[in-house]
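Observation: inputs received (chain + magnesium ion).
Thought: call the complex predictor directly.
Action: predict_structure
Action Input:
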Amino acid sequence: KAKSLGKNQYCVYKEEMGFHEVRKLELEKDLQRALEDQQFFIEYQPKWNVKTNSLWGFEALLRWKHPRMGIVSPNEFIPIAEETGFIIPLTRWTLEEACRQCKVWNTAGIAQSVSVNLSTRLFQTDHLIDWVQDALEKVGLEPCLLELEITESMVIYDIQDIVRQLQCLREMGIKVSMDDFGTGYSSIGLLDRLPIDTLKLDRLFTYDLDSPSKRAIIHAIVLMAEQLHLDVIAEGVEHEEHIAFLTQLGCFVMQGYYYGKPMKQDIIMTWVNQKQSAASSSDSNI
Ligand code: C2E
Ligand code: MG
Ligand code: MG
Ligand code: MG
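Observation:
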């Protein structure tokens, strides 16, 4: 039976490959003009502190509105942009745009940070620090309101060089967080060497809180983070049970669909006002 299916499956597989390859090539070509054509925009996802029942900050998540293909996921275009080097102008744009938006919130009384995701490529340029400084100065944002998210996987190459650059950024007052913590290699060893402020627990942990071993791991990570004076943020918080489990384990800052999906900038202010008045009315009920 497998044999008779074999040939067909092979064809399907080949067509699939063709489709993906064609799409990738097309995206690669179209990326070059997308920035000047203003096809990118940013959505901001809130991080919420359940202990104080207040906003912790936002993460800037890049979106590409392709003229023919519609919204393309960053999971698809970021790897292409990394391969081609286009990630560099793209990240510089994102940094400046996110800082500008954060400044707007700040002026309106929302003194919370914005975080921007960084790819390894940025650390290999020798200009990262200047670019970050430029973005902050251009919009007049205080450095302590900017956070940069890095991942464990990017540190496997030249750790000393990355450490040096991160130190420099932190001396400027910028915060650094380790994104998707727990999914890469040598996570724990890195914590000892990297100058960071925050651990973002990958959402794989949040998904699987029924598993006693996952809970034990989260608990251990939270205790370790406390000793290292790191904040912990749980990603992918979608349900009320997640919150109950996570707070039991000592994790109080959450990011996920339960609190808010990534949102366009124009609805953020309304969202914040609603959340804050809901929070203060639930506080006064206690
Ligand atoms: P990330 O940095 O780990 O961002 C979190 C991702 O999880 C986002 O996906 C967000 O929409 C999604 N998410 C948030 N809450 C929930 C939830 O409750 N449930 C589920 N299932 N998902 C949730 P998104 O926006 O598709 O971004 C995917 C990845 O693309 C990001 O993962 C980040 O690694 C990368 N990315 C996005 N923007 C940029 C950027 O400007 N530069 C770089 N280098 N990478 C970026
Ligand atoms: Mg991130
Ligand atoms: Mg993440
Ligand atoms: Mg993630």
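Thought: report the result.
Final Answer: The beta strands are 40-49, 54-66, 70-72, 113-117, 146-151, 175-181, 198-201, 231-234, 253-255, 263-264. The longest strand covers residues 54-66.
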